[in-house]
């Protein structure tokens, strides 16, 4: 008699929803029972905009860190679903860099496009408090709390998929004197509206995507000046007047910031664009991935199956640093669902085989030298996983677009969003924007759909 | 053979430290083993200032909500320890309304004044994740995580004292249109420096202590204007020019705020001074106090012993609305420690007797009609508890001071901190401030100690 499978998915963002979609489409004879727990009141994960910062309406750490004026910072053609293209959704060609509103709409289209209403699998405003693996019975005890009702439940599952994401718990480094800084200090996770910073002198700490985009956003919406400060290396884009880069902040003295090159500047606001922490406080220690952001975490088979504990029945989705985002989540989710259902040829492998496979990826990861290396690494990783489950998302063609996008940004960081890419699935070339990102202040989906040549 | 008692204290703020002090002073033959878990890196609870907002350096909800320029909003003579007076600590008379720096110093003096180093009982940067009562063995399983090391522990205790406070998890109501407000939105918990609001038009939502003090702070430090909006009733103080009160905010449209009286105003910042939520997410449901702020929570004997579950071995400290603060915590902690050690004459009582006693207080609570009623209620409550443990903190004399303080605020909200009170324990009359609060911009302890007539 085969075991009754019961799968717990934690999180209803792009990763968790991808898993729900795939389980929903599976044949009924292999399909397990599925329960998805979602802390927020709706699905969408990071793609839900919220006016709240810090803690949410229930006092839980706020999940979302989107800002009103966010536009995709990569071409939509690099995160397009092979089996649900942008053209399928919008029924017309749209430019390559949509605002958040349009992207969330696309995601939601995907999730409501199947035969089932996936909401029936999701327990909203329900936070998972504890996941413990029971060695003897080879299952998991999951404790969750319905935040609205204040009522907790304990349930048992054969498998757990952790899909809470890795970009929701801010990393906040200390700088000497910061506690006496006489201005606003915030993390980019709490950034909501660039207009708040009109006329102000900003210090942006960090040199990755958040730093880059927030510096530009704030200048666009009227900030007086922006200094970005870097630890490892500068972004070195051709910044518009008003943005400059300096080596790492050393200390603060009231409103004066002192940098490693001996320079100093008076600033009004500090925005920590210092990234996120891997945080899975609800998992028992041996189940908990404790990593820094990396292209392939240690101790994982296919960057998905956790080898540290949990009897090969605990999975993580989307825990690598990401270029491919939605399509990578999709591939991982499909692999994970099929692995659980036992429908992948050649799986399961022995632990030794899984570790050998993981070692191969980790060893290649250790030799990565540039963002372009990272892109190719991730394309190969997805291709490897895709081949096992027949998803075929044309990752090398997407990788080529990502390489071009990287070059476009070097050429002109202010207008890289004016570029157009061609869908590898529909073959449609994106129309050009009529008014460029820098000149557009209405970031709604409707305004975007009208803003084409 | 008597049971080996093992007590878990959760939180090393004024409440938890009061319990630690009392256990430390107890006779060795009745003294239980004690472990105190503290999420922060040091003791002090809400009295630790932090530059962080929202989530802390480990991604946990930030405990502290102090602002740089906070001064006590009540006379220090109303929160003075009978057995460790302000004069014992500072060795000289000091004015009645000290800044946070001086008050924290006083607390720390109390905690380091005994024979033992109380730090040895405290596990710092360790958060309690789960407390479950085991009916069969009549004890508690407590799971905690050392946030620095990322390592969890499970321990068993005979008693648990919840001392995490009730003013650390913000309550954030929604207002129509708030998600489109084009300015900064924050809760008072995230308020750090009034200088951030210089030249700005503030909307302060709320009509209690935070609203009152933040409105004044911001105006003092240069805010352009402050509108306070109330739900139940206005504060009705004689506000300085620049502060006004309006009935409840109805909706927001971009930067326009619309009020219940039909008026509207353009504002730059919304500060939610909307209080806090009772939040004990680590407690299993039947142990969890789920209440609104009240002078005496339901289901508690002596507002301290939880009657809802936990076999009469679960205690809360400081969970009522507070006028007496430190001295009330002290009285409750002493009662609680002695109750656990079995050294209170006439205790333990039967559950029926405890419920009858609780009903008496709840019934009186239900008839309270004014802040002055609340003050007298709390004085009587503390006197009742004190009489059982012989603490004698002269609560009626303190209540009289609180009545006067209430009147002082009505007379002049800007300068009530210029008043002087006399210690009921040392008999010392506080010296007057040389420069009044409104004119002082250096809020350090040192500046305060020099600022006397």
UniProtKB/TrEMBL annotation, chains A, B:
EC number(s) per entry: 1.-.-.-
Keyword NADP: yes
Domain of life: Eukaryota
Alphabetically ordered keywords of this record: FAD, Flavoprotein, Monooxygenase, NADP, Oxidoreductase
Needed co-factor(s): FAD
Residue ranges crossing the lipid bilayer per the database entry: none
InterPro entries to which the protein is assigned, alphabetical: FAD/NAD-bd_sf (IPR036188), Flavin_mOase (IPR000960), Flavin_mOase-like (IPR020946), FMO-like (IPR050346)
Keyword Lipid biosynthesis (UniProt): no
Family the UniProt entry places it in: Belongs to the FMO family.
Protein name in UniProt: Flavin-containing monooxygenase
Natural source organism: Mya arenaria (Soft-shell clam)
